[in-house]
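Sample intake sheet
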Amino acid sequence: MRDVEVTKEPVELYKILKFEGLLSSGAEAKAAIADGQVLVNGTVETRKRKKIVSGDIITFEQERIRIQLSR
Protein backbone atom coordinates (compact mmCIF):
# COMPACT_ATOMS: atom_id res chain seq x y z
CA MET A 1 0.00 0.00 0.00
CA ARG A 2 1.23 3.48 -0.77
CA ASP A 3 0.18 6.78 0.71
CA VAL A 4 -1.09 9.58 -1.52
CA GLU A 5 -1.20 13.13 -0.21
CA VAL A 6 -3.96 15.51 -1.28
CA THR A 7 -3.95 19.24 -0.62
CA LYS A 8 -7.70 19.54 -0.18
CA GLU A 9 -10.57 17.24 0.56
CA PRO A 10 -12.88 15.83 -0.48
CA VAL A 11 -11.56 14.63 -3.85
CA GLU A 12 -13.72 12.76 -6.35
CA LEU A 13 -12.80 9.08 -6.72
CA TYR A 14 -12.29 9.08 -10.49
CA LYS A 15 -9.83 11.98 -10.23
CA ILE A 16 -7.61 10.08 -7.81
CA LEU A 17 -7.52 7.04 -10.11
CA LYS A 18 -6.59 9.26 -13.05
CA PHE A 19 -3.99 11.47 -11.37
CA GLU A 20 -2.28 8.57 -9.62
CA GLY A 21 -1.85 6.78 -12.95
CA LEU A 22 -4.01 3.77 -12.11
CA LEU A 23 -5.95 4.51 -15.28
CA SER A 24 -4.88 6.73 -18.17
CA SER A 25 -7.95 8.96 -18.44
CA GLY A 26 -10.98 10.17 -16.57
CA ALA A 27 -13.23 8.24 -18.95
CA GLU A 28 -11.38 4.98 -18.22
CA ALA A 29 -11.55 5.67 -14.49
CA LYS A 30 -15.29 6.33 -14.65
CA ALA A 31 -15.85 3.13 -16.65
CA ALA A 32 -13.84 1.02 -14.18
CA ILE A 33 -15.81 2.47 -11.27
CA ALA A 34 -19.15 1.90 -13.01
CA ASP A 35 -18.12 -1.72 -13.71
CA GLY A 36 -17.53 -2.33 -9.99
CA GLN A 37 -13.75 -2.79 -10.31
CA VAL A 38 -12.86 -0.25 -7.59
CA LEU A 39 -13.11 -0.73 -3.82
CA VAL A 40 -13.22 2.07 -1.27
CA ASN A 41 -12.49 0.90 2.27
CA GLY A 42 -13.08 -2.70 1.20
CA THR A 43 -16.50 -2.11 -0.38
CA VAL A 44 -17.30 -1.99 -4.11
CA GLU A 45 -17.94 1.62 -5.08
CA THR A 46 -19.88 2.46 -8.26
CA ARG A 47 -20.29 6.22 -7.74
CA LYS A 48 -17.77 8.01 -9.97
CA ARG A 49 -17.93 11.19 -7.95
CA LYS A 50 -17.72 9.51 -4.55
CA LYS A 51 -16.07 12.01 -2.20
CA ILE A 52 -12.79 10.62 -0.88
CA VAL A 53 -11.30 11.98 2.35
CA SER A 54 -8.18 11.42 4.42
CA GLY A 55 -7.93 7.86 5.71
CA ASP A 56 -9.86 6.27 2.84
CA ILE A 57 -8.23 3.27 1.15
CA ILE A 58 -8.80 2.76 -2.57
CA THR A 59 -8.14 -0.61 -4.21
CA PHE A 60 -7.94 -1.16 -7.96
CA GLU A 61 -6.53 -4.40 -9.37
CA GLN A 62 -3.34 -5.07 -7.36
CA GLU A 63 -2.86 -1.46 -6.26
CA ARG A 64 -3.90 -0.08 -2.87
CA ILE A 65 -3.57 3.57 -1.95
CA ARG A 66 -4.34 5.38 1.29
CA ILE A 67 -5.35 9.04 1.10
CA GLN A 68 -3.63 11.49 3.44
CA LEU A 69 -4.28 15.21 3.77
CA SER A 70 -1.02 17.13 3.45
CA ARG A 71 -0.50 19.79 6.07
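Comment: Residues 2-69 form a domain with the Structural Genomics Hypothetical 15.5 Kd Protein In mrcA-pckA Intergenic Region; Chain A fold (CATH 3.10.290.10). Residues 1 and 11 are 19 Å apart (CA to CA).
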